[in-house]
Amino acid sequence: MTPFERVNQLFERHFGHAATLCVRAPGRVNLIGEHTDYNDGFVLPCAIDYETCVAVGLRDDNKVRVIAVDYAEQQDEFDLNAPIAPHPEQRWSDYIRGVIKHLQARGHQLHGLDLVVSGNVPQGAGLSSSASLEVAIGQAFKEACNLPISQAEIALNGQEAENHFVGCNCGIMDQMISACGKANHALLLDCRSLETRLIPMPDDLAVLIINSNVRRGLVDSEYNTRRAQCEAAARHYGVKALRDLDLAALEAGKAGLDEASYRRARHVVGENLRTLAAADALSTGDLPRLGALMAQSHAAMRDDFEITVPPIDGLVEIIKGEVGEAGGVRMTGGGFGGCVVALLRPEKVAEVIAAVERDYPARFGLQADCYVCQAKDGAGRCQ
Ligand code: GAF
């Protein structure tokens, strides 16, 4: 059953009538541009065909009632007229409460809603299940309360909720692509200006995501540490953000900067250049160039940013051995486990999956899950 079917079925069973409307917001895969977003840099993600759906019913009071289908139908209920605080136990509730609290703080007038939520974005896999939930809730209130809010503002509001209510210091990439993605396109996003450029995905290019199924245990603390190191490096160089540094300035000014922060900065400066080059390579269908840039990106995440783990490096080696020059592969997302993304010719997909199924369990004692994805539209009403 799809998330759309699940939320509508449960809504009707629980409330005794059909939902008034239903919205969706996708997860994402980042093709290149990792840990650049909070350095005001560039990213190149696309929205994927895994999503969070919310069935919505209007209430005639100021209460919000939520049912989380994927959390054993747990429920939450709170009043829009009272201060909204984190839930004492249910972490999933905080993404919803945080989004609503921040919509109110932005001055939006909300009224009570019944919400039933379900999604199929793999959780904890680096495919932005949290951002898709934040954006789906923002979209639900936009549609149900006729809010004068742009898709970019829904994204910014979701990021604020995650930074200040949930407590993860993430950048803006995941919420922006979930809110603003376009079918059959990747989105080159300037995370400083929020300007976007749509890059068509070539017809003869497959997007294959391979989930390492490595639990991303350290991700929150390590993520926040990387961000602090990048900010310290920017202060050392006297720039607003690492986005403002080029390779020559990086080398010329490194005296006095600790080795780890220098290498973090080197990844970010190089990754911004690689991301811009990759957008051009994708738009001209230059797969060998794209593959080389993705390989450099992965090496920098492994050696300079130090966010990969052996099973992820192993998956990249196994897949690179199959696709050769005619494609690219790299870790995608925050790191410390999660997924790798491969861009390759569709006729190669079956061979790559077979190689992963043969070699990955033998080397790491783990099973990988493979998803062949399509670039999808960002958040909106379910059709
Ligand atoms: C996570 C964060 F949420 C993003 O903002 C981004 O920093 C990414 O890690 C790394 O590129 O998905």
List keywords for this structure.
383 residues, alpha+beta, Ribosomal Protein S5, domain 2, Alpha-Beta Plaits, 2 domains, six-stranded mixed sheet, four-stranded antiparallel sheet, 11 helices, 13 strands, 43% helix, globular, binds 2-deoxy-2-fluoro-alpha-D-galactopyranose, magnesium ion binding, ATP binding, magnesium
Describe this structure in words.
This protein is an alpha+beta fold. The chain has 2 domains: 3-200 and 377-381, 2-Layer Sandwich (Ribosomal Protein S5, domain 2), CATH 3.30.230; 206-373, GHMP kinase, C-terminal domain (Alpha-Beta Plaits). The chain has 11 helices and 13 strands. It has helices spanning 3-15, 91-105, 129-145, 151-166, 173-180, 219-237, 247-252, 259-283, 287-303, 310-323, 349-364; strands at residues 21-30, 42-43, 45-58, 63-68, 74-79, 113-119, 185-190, 196-200, 206-211, 327-332, 339-344, 369-373, 380-381. The strands form 3 sheets. Strands 5-4-6-3-1-13 form a 6-stranded mixed sheet, with helices on both faces. α2 (91-105) crosses α3 (129-145) and α3 (129-145) crosses α4. The longest helix is centred in the C-terminal third of the chain and has 25 residues, at 259-283. The relative contact order is 0.17. The mean pLDDT is 96. The structure holds 2-deoxy-2-fluoro-alpha-D-galactopyranose. Residues 30, 34-35, 37-38, 170-171, 173-174, 333-334 line the site of 2-deoxy-2-fluoro-alpha-D-galactopyranose.
